[in-house]
């Protein structure tokens, strides 16, 4: 369900910073004609101005028409201030796609009172290289066609999981939203452990970084489950098995990851209020 066929006929992106900019690049790469897009951002970067110019994207148009899709990628704390200007753009036929962390479908409908179809999405950082993982939930008024449009918009930046209930977004935030930081920490701690095992720090850092990146790439390309990839490189009684005996112990990585994800989920709930 991706590709330019299901991308909308008219689209307004509000907020062209890190996430909004990455999304715009993904849509253009997927073949969305720039003429179908308008970007609203009071202080666009020079690179964004150039991207818009090169693709014929309208930047800060004076009186934009109500679009088929309105994508919100401003900071969550900016919603209140932006809402009055945006409300006329989100009509009953518009699908609103928000990546604003912590802003619920109800919050968005309060701020955009004419909107019916609202999709709340939680992307993650690798969206910037089109390898993201996004969880998304739609308001009940969202039609199948609008859901396909939202899917195409989100899938330009990677994998999309549709959730049956918006209540699951906090868990998504805790797993894939915050997850890249856990993987970066893995590279850091593996490098530190390499130094403790006698490697020079720069050698340990390079080996750990490439190991995490290479294993991630392999996982991304392989049809096999992570568990079977792990078993494939673990000979009984060998060196990997010795390390996994520690990592997979009762007090090993499993319970630690469970506690970490639970803490992130709790915090996501608190921040959403
Ligand atoms: N980055 C991520 O990995 C990530 C992951 C998941 C979700 N998100 C969500 O993505 C959203 C954007 O995050 P970001 O990291 O991309 O932030 P960002 O780089 O600060 O981008 C936000 C952009 O919106 C602009 N803006 C502010 N007020 C606006 C308004 N009223 N109308 C139009 N544009 C306005 C900002 O301009 P100024 O700089 O001039 O204020 C900035 O260019 C957040 O809600 C965040 O929760 C981000």
TrEMBL record:
Domain Pyrroline-5-carboxylate reductase catalytic N-terminal: 13-102
Pfam families to which the protein is assigned, alphabetical: F420_oxidored, P5CR_dimer
Enzymatic reactions: L-proline + NADP(+) = (S)-1-pyrroline-5-carboxylate + NADPH + 2 H(+); L-proline + NAD(+) = (S)-1-pyrroline-5-carboxylate + NADH + 2 H(+)
Positions with a binding annotation for NADPH: 60
Domain of life: Bacteria
Family: Belongs to the pyrroline-5-carboxylate reductase family.
Protein name: Pyrroline-5-carboxylate reductase
Gene designation: proC
């Amino acid at each position: 369900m991706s590709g330019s066929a299901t991308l909308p006929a008219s689209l307004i992106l509000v907020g062209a910073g890190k996430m909004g900019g990455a999304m715009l690049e993904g849509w253009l790469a997927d073949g969305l004609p720039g003429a179908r897009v308008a970007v609203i951002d009071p202080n666009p970067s020079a690179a964004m101005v150039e991207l818009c110019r090169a693709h014929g994207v309208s930047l800060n148009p004076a009186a934009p028409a109500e679009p088929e899709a309105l994508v919100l990628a401003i900071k969550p704390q900016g919603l209140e201030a932006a809402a009055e200007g945006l409300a006329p753009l989100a009509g009953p036929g518009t699908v609103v796609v928000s990546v604003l962390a912590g802003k619920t479908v109800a919050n968005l409908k309060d701020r955009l009172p004419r909107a019916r179809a609202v999709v709340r999405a939680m992307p993650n950082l690798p969206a910037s290289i089109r390898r993201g993982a996004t969880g998304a939930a739609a308001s009940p008024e969202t039609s199948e066609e609008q859901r396909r449009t939202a899917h195409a918009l989100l899938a330009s930046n990677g994998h999309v999981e549709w959730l049956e209930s918006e209540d699951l977004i906090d868990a998504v935030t805790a797993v894939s939203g915050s997850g890249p930081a856990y993987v970066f920490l893995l590279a850091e701690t593996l490098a530190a452990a390499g130094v403790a095992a006698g490697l020079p720090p720069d050698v340990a850092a390079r080996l750990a970084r490439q190991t995490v990146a290479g294993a991630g790439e392999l996982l991304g390309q392989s049809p096999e489950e992570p568990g079977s990839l792990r078993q494939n490189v673990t000979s009984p009684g060998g060196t990997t098995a010795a390390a996994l005996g520690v990592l997979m112990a009762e007090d090993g990585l499993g319970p630690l990851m469970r506690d970490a994800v639970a803490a992130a989920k709790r915090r996501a709930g608190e921040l959403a209020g």
